[in-house]
Specification:
Chains A, B: One of its GO terms (molecular function) is DNA-binding transcription factor activity. The structure is a homodimer. The first copy, chain A, is mostly helical. Chain A has six helices and three strands, in the order H-H-E-H-H-E-E-H-H. The two termini of chain A are 22 Å apart. Chain A binds a DNA duplex through helix 4.
Chain lengths: 155, 155
DNA sequence: GCGGTTTATATGAAGCCGCACTTATGGCTG
DNA sequence: CAGCCATAAGTGCGGCTTCATATAAACCGC
């Protein structure tokens, strides 16, 4: 174990991995979230739209997991998005407990448009870094994710 | 510009930097947040406690920025934490608009204890990765933060 | 194919968050 | 020092998230 003592002169959080991750995520995404705000689209709605991009029918629980939300939150979010005509729910044919969620035409075009803006923002972000660093970023993050995928069961 | 088209067979979000960051932050922190849950401490409270560690009197706005929250949210969070005896507010002597926030003795000991648990979790997280990768993580995140520090004014 | 367990989604109550706004103080310029 | 803008903190309200729970369907062993 051997936890080093708090380095003097450095704030705890400035050397705390979880905080650095949270802050980096926040700062980078806040730039794009500002664009969403201007268009009157909430972050949660954008997450659902992007999560449904290219997916033919996600489940409610699956979407919640994807969007880093609780399942009841997703149910209500989908209620609102369905009311706005962005998504449709349809029953799963094989398992009647399951609800499949898909984009409507409106939802699809909104998702496409936002995804384009998102890619442009991403390119802009990556352009601020030296190429080697930019390369390393995604693969490092993927490595973290791979090693932290929640132990499904009996981990 | 030249935005590449959506690679076929790969979900949008699986190659989207902002999502990878958000997901990595979420997954890594959720492990520690589970510990907080068991102790009945909210994530927001922990953030404030850790933000005040080693700091002699943060401002409300400064704390909000540090904790990635809005200032009004911080005001109300501090109300609750003050009621619980974790922090104290005191007027700044030089600028009467400013309120300085500091840990109480209870708050300090809770912060110390949690920071220890956080360091242990961090060590555990880093241990799952090859040393070179673990090294790279923090410095890469710091590089991102350095290049994305919000343009204060006239950016 | 019948109970018991597990999984998927929905619901209701309670609390937190964020926006817009208000109040109070400081700082700058003429 | 008067007037004006900038900055700090607090407040009210509406909406979203969450926790705990309910309901329904599927799976599993016998």
């Amino acid at each position: 174990m051997n936890i080093p003592p708090q380095p003097s002169g450095v704030r705890f959080i400035d050397d705390y991995l979880v905080y650095l991750l949270a802050r980096a995520a926040h700062q980078v995404s806040s730039e794009f979230h500002e664009q969403l705000r201007r268009r009157g689209i909430s972050v949660a709605v954008w997450r659902v739209l992007s999560g449904l991009l290219g997916s033919e029918g996600e489940t409610v629980t699956g979407l919640a997991e994807l969007c880093l939300l609780q399942q009841p939150t997703m149910t209500k979010l989908l209620d609102r998005m369905a009311r706005q005509g962005l998504v449709v729910r349809s029953p799963d044919l094989k398992d009647r407990r399951v609800v499949r969620v898909a984009l409507t035409e409106d939802g699809q075009s909104m998702a496409d448009e936002l995804a384009l803006a998102a890619r442009m923002h991403e390119a802009d972000v990556l352009a601020r870094h030296p190429p080697a660093e930019a390369e390393a970023m995604k693969s490092l993050l993927r490595a973290i994710l791979a090693r932290h995928d929640k132990p499904r069961r009996a981990g």
